[in-house]
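Structure tokens please, single chain.
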Amino acid sequence: MGPLLVSLGIVLILVILVISKYNRLVKLRNNRENAFADIDVQLKQRHDVIPQLVATVKGYAAHEKETLDLVVSARNGAMNARTIDEKIVAENALSSALSGLKITLEAYPDLKANTNFHQLQEEIADIENKLSAVRRYFNSATKELNNAVETFPSNIIAGMFGFKKQMMFDLGTERPTLEKAPQISF
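Here you go.
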């Protein structure tokens, strides 16, 4: 009877360990998804402001059609992205297009003096600052999940239940430009 109780005790401990690790992985995954929900709110605001900005710019910089089309196309791609990973890639493309638009607009002093354009720039700068903050929180939640997925013994449980390393909301090649706080100048 003694070895049987010891065996049952070991099995019970292993079952409790598996359940504990699995529940922790689920909590971490849900925390990451919740963090991305915060990003989604900011992205929606960003997507809503961009058409207004493009419309304002069109009146002053009609010959910059290619740049404006790139911003609109990137915005549409970002709005149509469904998964977190697709949204990360699409939003990085949109950030790149917006930074190209900022460079183009430097050549239009009349536009920079426009009140509506000024308000839209301030609104986008505010959204970008908020996005930066929630992106940091999301990346922290992703790092915590990835650490749990890759470290022993939770990596065994993660593999058994299909948990995988997740993508960070990285700025990629645009990092030096996009990590600077947006500046509004006139």
